[in-house]
Amino acid sequence: MLIINFKTYRESSGENAISLANSAFDLSKEYGIPVCVCPNMLDLKDIARIYAGGTWAQHCDPDERGRATGWIPPELYKDIGVAGVVLNHSEHKLQFENLKRLVDRVRNLDLKVLIFADSIEESINVSALTPDYIGYEPPELIASKDTSVAKAKPDVIENVVKAIPNIPILVGAGVKNQEDVRVSLKLGARGIAVASSVILASDQKSAIADLLQGWK
C-alpha cells in the first residue's frame, strides 16, 4: 500500500487535491497497487465522495461527539465515507491513553487505523493497541531532500519488522523514488508513506508512478 499525506500544502489543496487524488487512483488501477490519500480536513469530504474506499483522515480527536467545538470525533468521518484514520503523526502526536481510546472507537466504526511511531520502542508500544498498520518514520529523516530511511537506516526497517511480525509496517521519512520503495519492501515493509516527495514534485503524477514502480 502507498499512502499519500496531502498535509496542507497549496499544491494539494482545493482543486489541486482533486487533481492529485485522480492521478493517484488512476495510477493505482494501472499498477495494481492499493493507494490511499489523506487530504486536509476541508477537502476530505469532497474526495471521500469520489474515492470512499481509499480516502483516509490525517487525524481525529478522542472527544465525544456533540459538545466538542473545534474537535473532530471519528464518528464524523464515518458519516462522510472515510475509510481510515491516521493517528500519532510526528506533526500531531497523541498521548498513549488517547490513542487507546481512539483505536477502540475507530475499530467499532469499522474504520482502518494507521498509527505512526518514530522509534522501534514506540512502535512496540503502539503495537499493543493492534492497529491495522504501524507507520515507522525516523524523525530526523522526515522530508529529507538528501537521503531516506531506506538509504540511511535500512537496518531499522528490518529491525522494526522483526520486532512486530503480526502488524504490517509502512515506512516513510525521505522516501522519494522506486529504489527507496524496493529496498523497504525487500526488508519486510508492507507499504510506504509519503508526502512532500509527491506533493512538491514538479510532476506529481510522475512522482507517484515512479514510487509504484518499486513494487515491480
Quick summary of this structure?
The protein is 41% helix and 14% strand.
The number of E-state strands comes to 8
Mean pLDDT: 94
Q: Which percent band covers the strand fraction?
A: 5-15%
Distance between the termini: 13 Å
How many distinct helices?
10
Q: What CATH architecture do you see?
A: Alpha-Beta Barrel
**CATH homologous superfamily title:** Aldolase class I
Rg calc: 16 Å
Strand order of the largest sheet: 2-1-8-7-6-5-4-3
Shape: globular
Total number of distinct structural domains: 1
The first-level CATH class is given as Alpha Beta
CATH fold field value: TIM Barrel
Low-confidence stretches: none
Oligomer: single chain
What percentage of residues falls in helices of 4 or more residues?
Answer: 40-55%
What do you see in this structure?
By secondary structure, this protein is of the alpha/beta class. 41% of the residues lie in helices and 14% in strands. The chain is built from ten helices and eight strands. It has helices at 15-31, 44-50, 74-80, 96-108, 120-127, 149-152, 154-163, 178-186, 196-199, 204-213, and strands at residues 2-5, 35-38, 56-57, 84-87, 112-117, 133-136, 169-171, 191-194. It is globular.
Q: What order do the helices and strands come in, and which of them pair?
A:
Blueprint: E1 2-5, H1 15-31, E2 35-38, H2 44-50, E3 56-57, H3 74-80, E4 84-87, H4 96-108, E5 112-117, H5 120-127, E6 133-136, H6 149-152, H7 154-163, E7 169-171, H8 178-186, E8 191-194, H9 196-199, H10 204-213
Parallel strand pairs: 1-2, 1-8, 3-4, 4-5, 5-6, 6-7, 7-8
Helix pairs in contact: 1-10, 8-10
